[in-house]
Design goal:
Elements: E1 7-8, E2 13-14, E3 19-20, E4 25-26, E5 31-32, E6 37-38, E7 43-44, E8 48-50, E9 55-56, E10 61-64, E11 78-80, E12 85-86, E13 91-93, E14 102-104, E15 109-110, E16 115-116, E17 121-122, E18 127-128, E19 133-134, E20 139-140, E21 145-146, E22 151-152, E23 157-158, E24 163-164, E25 169-170, E26 173-174, E27 178-181, E28 186-190, H1 192-197, H2 202-216, H3 222-232, H4 237-248
Parallel strand pairs: 1-4, 2-5, 3-6, 4-7, 5-8, 6-9, 7-10, 8-11, 9-12, 10-13, 11-14, 12-15, 13-16, 14-17, 15-18, 16-19, 17-20, 18-21, 19-22, 20-23, 21-24, 22-25, 23-26, 24-27
Antiparallel strand pairs: 27-28
């Protein structure tokens, strides 16, 4: 299942039932798990680890050198999970600040011309639309949708179950369960349709909406909003997820005026 017209370095480790199409490039120090398919002209560069059942489309470069002046050819890595679809012309840079480097989880759909910078972490079950650009050391939680041409700046953090609408530029922390849109980025409500579609009960969605009314719609500080959430909402997994994210973000959230942080 390996075309003689592909370049596969003898030191690369390939699992069972791997398909390598003509003119693909597989570098040294690469691991490709069972059931992966590498389409023509795709490149898998040294330091990359692919899990099982990934499909890499034409002209994508997985594990490209980090685009950062701090990288001085020290070991750097790119770790891809299982069951991911990575479409044409995607570039994923290796990371050099952690053991796994740049990390993509399981079951992601990454559309054409996406660029993911060094040491970024993309958790599982995400959809990245065409031409999404993610700078280095960003983090995207699970079950998120980043629509076409979204831009995440360096060190941005996206919570779970977030929808960011097309063309939106994010520089900072987007809390879980919300929709962000426009430029500058604005709170656009709770991601209710997706939450309901994936099994969240109506009272769970309502409680999430109540929490974000305190954060984004009362004109109070984020600190006071947290106190109101604790007083107004009964303890729940959703409430704690929101509060934990805000605490970890040191009260700094996207679309909050500076004087209310």
């Amino acid at each position: 299942m390996i075309s003689p017209l592909a370049h596969v370095d003898p030191s690369a480790k390939l699992g069972k039932d791997v398909i390598i199409h003509p003119f693909a490039f597989i570098d040294a120090d690469v691991v490709i798990g069972d059931g992966c398919e590498i389409m023509p002209y795709a490149s898998i560069i040294r330091g990359t680890r692919l899990g099982k059942n990934n499909k890499i489309y034409q002209y994508s470069i997985i594990g490209a050198d980090p685009q950062d002046f701090r990288w001085k050819n020290q070991p750097s890595f790119c770790s891809i999970g299982d069951n991911n679809v990575i479409r044409e012309h995607v570039i994923i840079n290796r990371g050099f600040n952690s053991e796994k480097g740049t990390t993509i989880g399981n079951d992601c759909f990454i559309m054409a011309a996406v660029h993911i910078g060094h040491d970024t972490v993309i958790e599982g079950k995400n959809v990245l639309g065409n031409s999404v650009v993610i700078a280095g050391e960003a983090r995207v939680g699970k079950c998120c949708i980043l629509s076409s041409s979204v831009m995440l700046h360096e060190n941005s953090r996206i919570g779970d179950w977030v929808l960011i609408k097309g063309g939106c530029r994010i520089s900072g922390n987007v809390p879980p369960f919300v929709i962000m849109a426009h430029n500058p980025a604005s709170y656009f409500g709770v991601n209710a349709y997706v939450l309901r579609k994936h099994g969240f009960a109506e009272d769970q969605v309502d409680n999430i909406a109540k929490a974000y009314r305190h954060v984004y719609q009362t004109g109070t500080s984020v600190f006071n909003a947290m106190k109101r959430i604790e007083a107004d909402l009964d303890p729940s997994q959703e409430r704690e997820t929101i509060l934990d994210f805000i605490r970890d973000s040191k009260l700094k959230l996207v679309a909050i005026p500076r004087d209310l942080e």
